Amino acid sequence: MIYYKCVVNSQEQQDVNRNMIDRTRATSDIHADAAVISRARERVLTAAEQLFGEHGYKAVGLKDIADALGMRHASLYTHFPGGKEDLYCEVMERTFARHRQHLEQIGQTIAPPLRRQLRAVSDWLLSQPAVSTMRMMQSDMFAIAPERSKHLMDVAYQGLLAPIEHLVTSAYHRGEVRRTNTGMVAGMLLSSIEAVRSLRSIPGYGASDETPLDVHAYDIIDILIEGIERRP
Length: 232
Hints:
By secondary structure, the chain is mostly helical. Helices cover 75% and strands 0% of the residues.
């Protein structure tokens, strides 16, 4: 009887162990699959950010993004069941969150004066995929649902304009610059950086100008600063 019980208990323990192993393998497979999906999704977001930034929402289709990635058009719906608008909104939210984090960090880590801080801003913006805020406001936002458009405009303001406005406001309180419309200054800087980025694509101009883009950006910042500097 004792031997029989030992055999039964041993068998039960083996069954428990096998079940635990099976569950562990299943969990590992799930995690592995999730990692693969996550990497694929990240590739889609990165490619879409590049294309939307260069050409705008209306000009880019899911097929363009799929072609850039070498994947089937229908596969994109695995990651973004809502289609192009869902993908675009997530791309832009991710983009502006990244900008906000870095631009706020500039305010915390780059010491004044304002000129040095704005140069750090331009260095960051030129290092990132293009974002045409003007095209967003004039075209892209009218092509998506109104509630999403409003949300993205708020996110864009917090991610790009607000951190620059904060730098200008701080410079005013330090006595570096006169009182001015901080939103206008931030908008002028952003549109100027976008213009600098587009220089290379101007026929007959971009090919002949070998000046680094950051040099052009610094010149614009100098002009901007000299226009708002506090004078005796």
